[in-house]
Design goal:
- By secondary structure, this protein is mainly alpha-helical.
- The chain is 42% helix and 4% strand.
- Strands 1-2 form a two-stranded antiparallel ribbon.
- Strand 1 and strand 2 form a beta hairpin.
- The longest helix has 14 residues.
- It is globular and about 35 Å long.
């Protein structure tokens, strides 16, 4: 499924580095790109939840849930925002970051 953003949605462009909080449109696009925005996604590939967190990254977020797919979407959205406040979208989500850049979302 190719994520789409309504032409009426005018997202705020993220800083060129790709660090920092995402707008609602950006975070929704990222979740759609990663998993179809399926909070309970566990496809057996070692990545979990809407944003496909690895266990190590998820545990470093201190969310109190064993895996991302077991956490409510609000917790996952908060965790991805906190992750991107300390790390680049380009290293954490390179494929989706390229798609977002090609669409002018970052």
């Amino acid at each position: 499924v190719e994520p789409t953003i309504s032409p009426a949605a005018q997202p705020t462009i993220a800083p060129p580095s790709g660090n920092g909080p995402l707008t609602e449109e950006q975070i929704t696009f990222l979740g759609i790109c990663e998993s179809g925005m399926t909070a309970t996604r566990n496809s057996g590939n070692g990545y979990y939840g809407a944003f496909q967190f690895s266990i190590g990254t998820w545990n470093s977020m201190g969310s109190y849930y064993d895996r991302a797919d077991l956490a409510p979407i609000e917790v996952q959205r908060d965790a991805v925002q906190r992750l991107l406040s300390r790390s680049s979208i380009w290293t954490q989500f390179p494929g989706c970051a390229r798609k977002m850049r090609s669409l002018g979302l970052i």
